[in-house]
Amino acid sequence: MSHNNKLHRVLSTSVLRIPRSRYSFWQRHADDLIVTPFAQILASLRSVRNNYISLTNVQAPRESSVLCILFVIYGPADFQFSDSSVLCILFVIYGHAGLQFSDSSVLGILFVIYGTAGLQFSDSSVLCILFVIYGPADFQFSDSSVLGVLFVIYGHAGLQFSDSSVLGVLFVIYGHAGFQFSDSSVLCILFVIYGHADFQFSDSSVLCILFVIYGPAGLQFSDSSVLCILFVIYGPAGLQFSDSSVLCILFVIYGPAGLQFSDSSVLYILFVIYGHAGLQFSDSSVLCILFVMFGPAGLQFSDSSVLCILFVIYGPAGLQFSDSSVLGVLFVIYGPADFQFSDSSVLCVLFVIYGSAGLQFSDSSVLCILFVIYGPAGLQFSDSSVLCILFVIYGPAGLQFSDSSVLYILFVIYGHAGLQFSDSSVLCILFVMFGPAGLQFSDSSVLCILFVIYGPAGLQFSDSSVLGVLFVIYGPADFQFSDSSFIYGSAGLQFSDSSVLCILFVIYGHAGLQFSDSSVLGVLFVIYGSAGLQFSDSSVLGVLFVIYGPAGLQFSDSSVLCILFVIYGHAGLQFSDSSVLCILFVIYGPAGMQFSDSSVLCVLFVIYGPADFQFSDSSVLGILFVIYGHAGLQFSDSSVLCILFVIYGPADLQFSDSSFSDSSDSSVLCILFVIYGHAGLQFSDSSVLCILFVIYGSADLQFSDSSVLCILFVIYGHAGLQFSDSSVLGVLFVIYGHAGLQFSDSSVLGVLFVIYGHAGLQFSDSSVLCILFVIYGPADLQFSDSSVLCILFVIYGPAGLQFLDSSVLCILFVIYGPAGLQFSDSSVLGVLFVIYGHAGLQFSDSSVLGVLFVIYGHAGLLFFSDSSVLGVLFVIYGPAGLQFSDSSVLCVLFVIYGPAGLQFSDSSVLCILFVIYGHAGLQFSDSSVLCILFVIYGHAGLQFSDSSVLCILFVMFGPAGLQFSDSSVLCILFVIYGPAGLQFSDSSVLGVLFVIYGPADFQFSDSSVLCILFVIYGHAGLQFSDSSVLCILFVIYGHAGLQFSDS
């Protein structure tokens, strides 16, 4: 009860001041009315406080703390205040309404001055100053609003901006005209330049620059369009590309030349890689893929080449070949016989794998397989070498044979035992004939010849014996000469053992030493002297030169004319080297010279002699004359009757070639007779077909003799002349009239329409269904017959007509039936579906990965997305292409610049910068707006951070804007005041003060409450410490508040 005693004393002392007349009342009732109840209240509060502290471990306010009173009055709610909190006063004055302020809140002052109206500001709000200056009118601003400054400058007109709006600056500069921009809009600059016209751009649009450069013409691009750069470079010419078109890059690189490609064309890659050379392909051409894979080597395939599908037809049988070899399929199907086809060249694969090193093979070379299997080791074989087979069978062991070596037979027969012979050794023949018994001869021994001629009887001569040669020349009669015969003397010692020169030396002495050992020229030199040295050693002309002298030098070495020249002399020089007439000239002499080289009459002349001179060179009568003799001469040279005569004999002579004196040389009836036989005789001789010339005169000379147009001309007159001479439409026009004109002149449908009527229209115009015509109706040989649809039509009937003519699906349909119809017509997946079944369906229909999956298997699925262009890159560059994302434009950069393009992120606009500026563009971050700055200012733009607002400052002020931090409010100050604003820290409230008062506020620290005091009281406010409670007192009471101590 000590507290009761203290209270009793206090109250008692206080009661002493009560008038005495009432003292007795207070004395009697003080304990009951005041002391006891108040003591009970304090005890209850203290109990609550102690219980709360014990439960929550919250530190209790100090005993002397003002908060203890607050705590006593308001309870635990006041624990949030620090002991020196200004809010305690606010809380005392305003109660719980004061709890929203932080301890150092300037709003305490606002709340003291304005009451609850000040509660809308956050603690660090600059608006407190506005509120101090303008009062409640500032309630619409958020706490960190820069608009305080605007409101200070413009008043209520600044209220339309959002809190963080940069437009404050715009409004400062342009007034109400800035209201149309979004808060973070870069377009403020555009608006400054162009005004209201910029409303259509999105906030982050790069098009603002386009609009700055081109005006409203830039509005047609979508916001993220890369074409903005194209439009900047080329102007309206760039508008033909779709927004996602990769061709924009082509257009950037090649200019308008890139416009011939459709937007989805694969050819843009070809054009990037090969330039104009890629333009020879049609847009849907399969060759574009071949050209991408194999380069120019792929150009040897015809556009309708079925070879790409061969592997589909024959399946795993092609697995013995290297993975990328197309020839594997050919070899499996046709065997080595197909190496002669240029159309199916494997070299395209070699070129892909080995580069230009693969170009040394001829198109039909078997070595392509060797090169695929063994690499460059296979290059030592000549193109026609059979050793390639040895190399395939025995491996590198076969490399010791020269290309023309006969030893490959030995090696095949005897294996490694055959390797002891030198490549040019004659012993290979001996070894073949006699077996190991032939090995006793040295490789250059003449005895090999003796052994061949005389058998073991030749072995009596020693290997170095000169008599071997004599024995060869003279036979056994030479045995009378001893080996050291006086005939040869010691001079014979300088010759090699088997040397023919020993004879030369015997005859000519040392003059014979200049010839090589096996040289034929030895003879020439013997006969002509040094004049014979101009011939190569194996030259046939050596013989000519021997016979004719220098006159024989005009012939090529292998020329057949050498024989003519030998027989006829200079008269033989008029024939070409491969001329058949050389034989005629041989037989008939100069009389054979009237025939052309390919003339059939050469045969006639051979048979009949000069009697055949009446025939022209290409006359078919040559044959008639051969068959019928002079009886065939009644026909004119170009007469069709000659054929009739050949077919029917003299029976056809009833048709005279000049049945009508004015008719052309070949009677139409002869054609009728040829086609219909005697049935054609029902036409009168005055048939319309025969008297065209009679009716129209020379006007009919424009028709060929067998022209169908003669009928058209008869029926329609000159109107029929619109058809070409061989036009099938002539028949159509005759039958259907003008209705037939819907077909093109060379249309196969003409025949279909004639035969089947409208039912024939289901075929595409370029259909190669000639085989179908052969099977189901009259066929015309002018149609190509490579159509696979003939098989479909045979198997499925009209159901097969739903495929396009060049469709790969025809094979799928043959194999899988209607299940194959889920693929699009040009789908590579046909091949995948054939090989992998339904597993191939994971690719999109136009996927290049079909080819990759065929070549690399599942390994191709790890890297590329379904529509990836990287398939081509992977084919060209291998794994180096894997670093690009699937839709990356960088694939083009990589093609153009190589690995240097790898530093760009996938969606980087810098790829275009790199194209324009080269390596200089590499310093920008990927999404940097600075790419535009760099385009405008060059290297000067590199000092900004990527998202920096300073890019705008730099645009407006140049390098002077570089001193601000990226998020600095000072950018606004700098805009308004210039370099004078640089003395403030970045988050300084003094920026605002400086705006209002100028340089006078430099003495305050950045977060100082004194800035407000200084604003209100001037220099008198400087005597307070920054956290002093007296600042509040001074604010409330002025100098009167200075009599109180800080606590």
Automatic annotation (TrEMBL):
Residues 35-63 form the Phosphodiesterase 4 upstream conserved regions (UCR) domain. The keyword Plastid does not apply. It holds the Pfam family PDE4_UCR. The chain crosses the membrane at residues 106-134, 141-159, 171-194, 206-234, 246-274, 286-314, 446-474, 486-508, 520-536, 580-608, 620-647, 668-695, 701-719, 749-776, 788-816, 828-854, 861-880, 892-917, 929-955, 967-997, 1009-1037. Its EC number is 3.1.4.53. InterPro entries: PDE4_UCR. It is an enzyme of class 3 (hydrolase). GO terms for molecular function: 3',5'-cyclic-AMP phosphodiesterase activity. Keywords: cAMP, Hydrolase, Membrane, Transmembrane, Transmembrane helix. This is 3',5'-cyclic-AMP phosphodiesterase.
